[in-house]
Design goal:
Blueprint: E1 16-20, H1 26-46, E2 51-55, H2 61-68, E3 73-77, H3 83-88, E4 91-94, H4 104-111, E5 116-118, E6 135-136, H5 140-151, H6 154-172, H7 174-192
Helix pairs in contact: 1-2, 1-5, 4-6, 6-7
């Protein structure tokens, strides 16, 4: 996560949203199709100048066709460096509705000091606190409402950014991960002190 770092005071475009991912991965494609059809129009009703950047390789024909019909949507395709997109957008959105495993995209957004609006499915394996380090929304209406809330509340954006960055540094940085491994090894060694090896004869 150290690769994805930016000052919390970094200048961002006020009315801009970002999603990142390999776009021919079905959960990512489905999430963005769902977002563009069900959520983005409600946000545009409130913020007509809103823009959305979808950064990632291999956007599907379905997504390309949909994006062409909607004002303010940009598909980047493959990019060498995602950090400039994280640095300039106001809010990271993660409207995943399926998929398994830890979602690194949220950790990357947090590392880049971005406020995040996400579904519960996007947060698997991550320590999240709704309203503290993230805003969680699972229905289209609620998701749009929280994006709109965040666009209009700079202090909330800053608070979520700081708390998200703090969560990454505390739990998901190389330093914190290494320390947890060292603690585990220390407990294992402490528990084994004084015990004879199970196969002592093989060790002589």
């Amino acid at each position: 996560m150290e690769y994805f770092r930016t000052p919390i005071s970094s200048v961002r475009k006020h009315q801009s949203l970002l999603f990142t991912g390999v776009m021919d991965y079905p959960p990512n494609n489905d999430a963005m199709v769902h977002f563009l059809k069900k959520i983005y129009p409600m946000v545009r009703d409130k913020y007509p100048d809103i823009s959305l950047t979808i950064a990632g390789r291999n956007p599907t024909d379905e997504l390309k066709a949909l994006a062409r019909k909607i004002q303010g949507v940009r598909l980047t395709g493959l990019v060498d460096d995602l950090r400039p997109y994280f640095e300039s957008a106001a809010i990271y959105v993660s409207p995943l509705i399926s998929g398994a495993g830890m979602k690194n995209k949220i950790l990357e957004a947090w590392s880049m000091a971005m406020p995040v609006v996400a579904t519960s499915a996007s947060c698997s394996g991550i320590e999240v606190r709704d309203g503290v380090n993230i805003l969680i929304a699972d229905s289209p209406d609620e998701f749009a409402r929280k994006v709109i809330l965040l666009l209009g509340d700079e202090s909330l954006r800053v608070s979520l950014s700081k708390n998200g960055r703090s969560t990454v540094e505390r739990l998901y940085s190389w330093q914190s991960s290494s320390q947890r491994l060292m603690d585990i090894f220390a407990r294992i060694l402490a528990n084994d002190m004084g015990k004879k090896p199970m196969y002592e004869g093989c060790l002589s």
